Every structure is written in structure tokens, then in C-alpha cells.
Amino acid sequence: MVEIGQISLVAAFILAVYVTVVGFAGGVLNGRDLVASARWGFYSVVPLLLIATTALIYAFVNNDFSVAYVAENSNLAMPRIYAWVAFYSGNAGSLLYIAVAFSIMASICLKVITKKLPYTAPYALGVMSMVLIFFLAVILFLANPLEKLPVTPADGQGINPLLIHFGMFIHPPFQMLGLISVALPYSVAVGALLAGRGGRDEWVDQGRLWGMVSWLILTVGLLLGSWWAYTILGWGGYWAWDPVENSALMPWLAMTAFVHSIMVQKRRGMFRMWNMVLVITSFTMAQLGMFINRGGPVPSVHSFAESTMGWIFLAVMGLTLFVSLVIFVIRYDTLKSRGRLESLISREAAFLTQNLLFLLIAFVTLWGTVFPIFSEAFDETTMTVGQPFFNKVNGPLILLLISLMGVAPLLPWRRATRRALVRMLMLPVVLGLGIAAAVLLLGITRPWAVASFAICGVAVSGVLQEWGRGTLSRHRRGEWWPRAFLNLLNANRPRYGGYIVHLAIIMLGVGITASSFYSVQRDVVMKPGDTETLGKYTFTYVGVNEESFADRLEETAEFEVWSGDKYLGYMYPYRAFYPEFRIAATRGAINSSPMEDFYLVPSEFNENGQAVFRALINPMVWWMWASCPILVFGTLVALIPRRRAKNIQLGLTPLTLSNVDQNRSTILGTED
Amino acid sequence: MLVFVSIIICIIPAMVVLYPLLSKIASQSPFPEDESSVNADLERRWESALDGLQSAELERSLGNLDEEDYRWLREIHMYEAALVLKAMDLSKSEEISLMKRVNDEIAKARVHSGGVE
Amino acid sequence: MSIVKVAVTRSYVLAILVISLVLIQLLVSCKAPTEISELDSRTNSLNKSIMCPVCPGESIDQSQNELAAHMRRIVREQIDGGETDSEIREYFVDRYGPVVLLEPPTSGIGLIAWIVPPVGLLIAICSVAIALIVMKRRKREEVADDTLSYSDRVRYFKLLEEGEGAEDGPPGREI
């Protein structure tokens, strides 16, 4: 089975090379048969990679330790179901995962763009298959997951114990999928450039579609990761500005900028050059992310073991960036804007500002992540750049961004007078100030927290104001309130879907603000029977239950918890120690409510019966996780396509004067 | 057994890939509509003019637009839409000049796509 | 004055709705933040600013490593002993080097780390300003087709306007 997998990999690689050559040739020579052949070749890569994947998972499930990768990443004690996790938990396996997942996504993308952009598609196909060639080449020549060991060991080394959690079924695959999915809008955009067909905004619809798909996957990946860190890793936080986390954040920031400014190009034919630069930047950052993930130049909790791998990714990233820019420069003159900026108080201007803010935050994140290398190179002292730095620097910038997010959607396209500006901003600003006052009255005095809540208040009011006014105006024309609202939403899906997403982001912002500024924690030493308090919570340590397994020692503590006078029940934080890996994994016990989370996690259990625990109160974290489904919903609403007007077809049938009436109704038969 | 399976793994994709080349279905089917044609461009501009009109209406009902701005915006977008209509009507003035025009458009579109097939 | 009047008359219903929503939200989530002792609070923030030397990139607050636990104990002892925050930090820097601090010091090469972001912000603001001004000035791209004559305009606008009676709904009238 393993050998079959290996052959499939080789076949897939050869096929990918064929597809690239023939795809580009077909595009250049306008040979439609060549293009069709390349297309089918690309689709065929999918089953081949699935065979290789199946071979690997099969090897895991059957504990086939003759395969080096299986021996490194699993053992006899590992539950079978974690074969899926083990598959992508190591370097080589994750490459295969990325290759197969990308080939599937790209095939779907290819199917769509062949129909919508028939003359651009061959070039986009070429770009996509080059991405595939890279991964397959690395797999075959550097890190083959199906490589065999000369001697079969009796047992494997086992999977990293931190990975034994159901969250690991979804977070890393999603994250990796998100990073590679940036290649999709990139392929469409660069394909259009190569085809010389970017000058009339042909690719914008598909660019927006795949950009938003990629953005959605990236966002969910980031949120899942934060959720996993919070609920599983047991340090009470959800984001540490770790280099690998940062490397996933940077392409997300660039993609967010992109999906916004692509709307300007769709609407006005502006920002053509800028959007190209943005999408190339996004992909470069995604590649940089993969480098940081695997290269290990900066220490991180997430790093895969190997380090030589990373430099290949860096080199290819550099090459991709260079080549993309060359293509961009060559096609530069096709990218002049159609429209022109009429006013500084307009949505276009706001989008440009927002774009730059996003990129600035990405730059600051990048800067902080690579500064240790920089300082070592120039000064021979290694500095560390961690949470405090990022919080202090990115925090205000993000706050600025959220203010813009609150204000910009209220701006009309093209132009608004100052008077209209006052009218649209008055209510949100007043409400924002009101919230600031209310918040101060409640005892929240830290300036950044107050500012943040106030700005979130402005943003929410902006959205609600527009929803209210829009519904009101429809209601005035005779529609019943709920219907008016739903019709408003439905008639302007991209816009109102976007608002739903913004609301989700505000929820996220509120949760982050509250938990960043007002989390409290205490470390306590307790014997069984002791009671401690934190805030209004009282917790009694009942005892600890030890359980020994083949690979670990689990100590589960039992607590009884009260909130004020209300009895909350039992909580069971636990700690597992893996002697072979010398790792301790703790799981916190969380009592969650929208207002706050009460969080208990064990630090150590001593011989004499004493144990050290950490208790935390994290306000409003619930809002962060609640925002995720709302965000997904909003994105899907924004993505639902309009019914296309089948009107203007120049066609090959002559239009004579007698066809005017037919012509007119054809023209005006647009549906919105 | 292994040899057999590997041959299958290599042959099937090869066949799949050769089939379009040999049967030439793709080149015998009609040309797909060119995304860069004047046609397609007009359609995009029509849609963006309509989008603009729609959002001007929405913004006005929300109170984000002054009457003056609203009228100005509406004028701009109607102008754009009218241009598109006119561009289309240009090709229907007379049969002969129409056919010439249409053929010109097709020829222009072909040149853009980079070659004759 | 008239602006206020306009704003008020148009949105009073809306304002009441929004204000009540917001108030409900606040009431639901209102509580004064939990206070913990000053010493505890200091300990926590110090722990969060010192890195565990053997764990990649984790603070001693975060890490569950034994060395991290040991370092936390030292921090607590020193706080109880009356040392200031900077003295405690210096203690660790002496032992492990400046790499043990989770943010670069504001002197020497570390200063560069702090300077670059604000400089970046400045550059970003200037770029946006310049870009916007340039874009405003740029001439509108000449339309390829002929511009509309007056009679053309009348005819086509009429066509578009009349479409507003058509059964599929008027272009642009619907919101």
C-alpha cells in the first residue's frame, strides 16, 4: 500500500509538470484542446493525491512502523482515530495534506473560472499547478511522508500529547487550508495579468469570490486556534503573539484589506494596481507564514522540528514575489483606473485608509516577529519580542481600525457633503460617548478600555442606525416591519452581509477588550478541604484522583464551586504528565457565562498533598466564541450571488430598428 | 500485484489527459464568450451603473445623502448607463453597417485573445 | 441648530430603539471589575513580561515548566521583599541576558524596535494623504465611446426612466 502511495506521488508530480507546461502553452497559443487536456490533468491529480493520503492514513491505522513518518508520529498506544491528526502533525505529512487539500480546492476554483473567465483560466491554471509542483517537489525530494525505514522499529515515538484533543481535528487543518487558499485569488489575479486581461476588471468577480472564501477559512482557522489555546492549553489566554500565530495573522490582515478594496474596483474600476499589489502581498505573507512555521528562525511553541526545510520556503517565497512583481510591472499600463476619486469624504477614500492601516498592522506584526533575528544580526544580542510589545503597539492601531470600521460603511460612494456627514455620524458618536460615560460609572476607568468600549459602541450604533433607517423607510412604503428588514437585507446582500460580519468583529472586540484589561488571576496553594476565593467565586479543593496510563500519569482535581451564594457544581481541572516527552499538559476547567469565565487550572501536585492551582476570571470571553457563527453567516450572506441579468448580449444576430421594443425590454429586464 | 496497480495509476491519468487532445472536442465546440470583449465590459459597466443607482437610492433613504448629492450621483450613473445603451445601439443603426460593426467587434475581440485558432 | 433638529426628527424612533438596546446590553453585562490585591496584580504583570528561558517564546506566567514555576517563586519572594519592578527585571537580565525580557528595552538596539512602528504610522498617514490628493487630481479617463449629445441624453434617460414601470421593477428605484 505504501508503495502504491509513493507511485501516486510521483505520478502526481509528473502530471503537475505536464499541466503547467501544457496549460500555459494552451493559453499562449490559444489552443483550446491543449487547455482542456491540462484541465483534465489537473483534475486527475486529485485522485492520485487521495491515494497517497489513504496510503499514509492506512499505515497509521495499521501501526506500520516501517514508514519513517508513522514511526515518528504515532505509537501503539495512540487511539486509532487520531491517525487523522497524526497524518498532518508532522512536517512531511502536513505537506501532503496541504497538497491534497489545495488540489481539491483549486479544482473547484478551476471549474468555476473556466466557465466565467474562459480566456484567463489557462493562465490561472498554470499558476495553480506551479504551486502544486512546489509542494510535490518538496515532498518527493526533501520530506517524503511515505519514506521507509531500513529497520522496522517495534514501536513508534508517539504523537505529541498536546495534540490529543478533538480540537486538533479541526484547527490545524483549517489553518493550513486557510494559508494555502490564499493561492486561489492570487492565481486568478496573476493569471489575469499574464493573460493580459486585467485591464477591464474581468477578474474582479472571481477575485472577490475566492478572496472571500480564503478569508473565511483564514478567519475561522484563527478563531478556532484561539479557542483551542484557551480551552485546552490551560494558561487562560487565547493569543500570545507567538511567531506562528503571527504568521497566520499577517495574510489574514492583507486578505481583509483585499476583500474590501476589491469592492471599489468592482464598483468604480479604481484601485486596479493596488489590488494586484495587495493580492500578491497576501500570498507572499502566506508563504512567509509557511516559512516561519517550518523554518524555526524564531522560537515558537508551534514549530515543527526540522529547520532546513524552512529556507526552501523562504527562497520560493522570494522568487514568487520577484516574478509576480516583474509580471506586474510588465502589465502595468493595462491597470490604469477607470474612475476617479471625487471626494475625500467617500467610501473609496475610507477604504484606502483602511487598507493602509491593515498593512501597517501586518508590518508591525512582521517587524516584531523578525526583530529578534534583526537584533542578533546587528548587535549580537538576541532580544525577545512578545506579548507586551505587540499589545502596546498593535492595540492602538487596531482601535483606530475599528473606529474606521464603524464610520466608513456610513459613507456613501463617491461623495458626501459635510452636512450629510454630521447627520450620519451624530447618533453613533452620541451613543459612543454615552457608553463611555456608562462604562466609567460602572467602575471601568482604564483609559484604553473606556476608549475601546466607546469605539465599539460607535461602530454598533452605526450598523444599527443604518438597519433602523433602512427598515423604517421600507416600512413607510407599506411593508410590515420584519418583512421590511428581511427584504432590506436581501436586496443588498453584500452590504448587509458585511454589516453582520462587522457586528461579529465588534463582539470579538468587546470580548478581547474586557478580557485583556480586566482579567484577574491568582495562584493558590491548597490542601484537600481548603477553600479559597477569587472575586465572587468560592472554590473548595475536594481532592485529587490519580490515574496511570501506559504513556502518562493523569491527575484530576475535584473542586466544588460557588458564585456568591449560588452553587455551581463540580469542576475537574486536570494535569497529565508524559514522562517520555517530558511534557505536562494541563486542561483547565471552565465555568462559562456571557459575562465572564471562571477558570481553574492546576500547576503542580506535590507529594505532601498540597497542590498549586491558578484561578482566573476572564470577562466576556464567551462573546469571542459566539462571534464565530455570526461571522460565518454574514460572510455567506454576502457571498450569495445576484441573479444575473441576461440582458446585454451583443450576440451575432443583427439588431434592426424594428427590434427596438424587444431590445428595450431586454435591456431593462435587469433584476437586482 | 504492485506492478499491476502502478501501471493502472500511470495509465489512467495519461488516458484522461490524452483524450481531449485526440478527440479535439474543445476546439470543435463554439467559442466561449470572451470575458474581455467589449460586450462583457459593457455588461460590467451596466451593472456597476445600476449598482450605483441602487446604492444612491439606499443612501438617500437612509439620510446619508443630501438631495443635491443624490441628484448628482443619479445623473452620473444614468449617464453611464445611457452610454452603455448608446454603445449598443451604435451597432444597430443600419443592417450593413451593423454587420460590419459586429464583425469588427468580433475581430477586435479575437485580436485581444491572442491569436486565431 | 438646524442640523440637530434634522437629526433628531429623523431618527427619534431609531434612537430610542438603539439606546434601549444598548442599555439592556450594559445592564446584562454590568458589574464592577473584580479587584485583586495590588501585590498579586504586580506579580501577574511581572510574570507576563519575563520569558521562560527554556520554553520557546512563553512567559513564565504561561509556561508550566518547572523552571518557570521556580522563577515565579523568585519573583514573588522579591516582591514580598520590597524590590521594585525594574530591580526584579534587572535581576533576571543579569542571569539570563536581555533575551529574557518579553519586550525589548528602550535603549540600545531595542529602541529601534519601538521607533519603527510610529515611523511606519507616519509614513502610512502621509502615503494615504498623498495618494488621495493625487487621485483627486487625476483626470477622468476619456470615455472611449462618443460622449452623449443633448438629444441622445434625453432619449436614453427617457428610456431608463420609463423602465421604472416595467414588471421586473425599476432599475435603481428599489432599495
Q: Any overview of this molecule?
A:
The complex is a heterotrimer of chains A (672), B (117) and C (175). In chain A, 62% of the residues lie in helices and 11% in strands. Chain A has helices at residues 2-29, 32-61, 68-73, 83-89, 91-116, 121-141, 167-181, 183-194, 204-232, 243-268, 272-295, 308-330, 347-379, 387-407, 418-441, 447-476, 481-491, 493-518, 622-639, 660-667, and strands at residues 520-526, 531-534, 537-548, 553-563, 566-571, 574-578, 583-587, 589-592, 596-605, 611-619. In chain A, strands 2, 3, 4, 5, 6 and 7 form a 6-stranded antiparallel sheet that branches. In chain A, strands 1-10-9-8 form a 4-stranded antiparallel sheet. In chain A, helix 7 (167-181) packs antiparallel against helix 9 (204-232), helix 9 runs antiparallel to helix 19 (622-639) and helix 13 (347-379) packs antiparallel against helix 14 (387-407). The longest helix of chain A has 33 residues, at 347-379. Chain A is globular and about 80 Å long. Chain B has helices at 2-23, 25-28, 38-62, 67-89, 95-113. The two termini of chain B are 45 Å apart. Chain C folds into 2 domains: 1-31; 36-128, Cytochrome C biogenesis protein (Helicase, Ruva Protein, domain 3), CATH 1.10.8. The radius of gyration of chain C is 32 Å and the shape is elongated. The two termini of chain C are 31 Å apart. Chains A and C meet through helix 13, helix 14, helix 15, helix 16 and strand 1 of A and helix 1, helix 2 and helix 5 of C.
**Whole-number average pLDDT of chain B?**
72
What Rg of chain C is obtained from the alpha carbons, in whole angstroms? Answer: 32 Å
Uncertain ranges of chain C: 141-146, 163-175
CATH second-level architecture of the largest domain in chain C: Orthogonal Bundle
Average pLDDT of chain C works out at: 72
Number of helices of chain B: 5
Oligomer: heterotrimer
| Count of DSSP strands of chain C | 0
Q: Helix proportion of residues of chain C, in percent? A: 55-70%
**Apparent shape of chain B:** elongated
Helical/strand content category of chain C: mainly alpha
| Low-confidence spans of chain B | 91-103, 105-117
Q: What's the number of helices of chain C?
A: 6
What is the CATH superfamily classification of the largest domain in chain C? Cytochrome C biogenesis protein
Amino- and carboxy-terminal Cα gap of chain B: 45 Å
What's the CATH topology name of the largest domain in chain C? Helicase, Ruva Protein, domain 3
What proportion of the residues of chain B is helical, as a percent range?
over 70%
Number of domains of chain C: 2
Instruction: Report the major sheet of chain C.
Output: none
- Tell me the series of helices and strands of chain C, N- to C-terminal: HHHHHH
Largest sheet of chain B: none
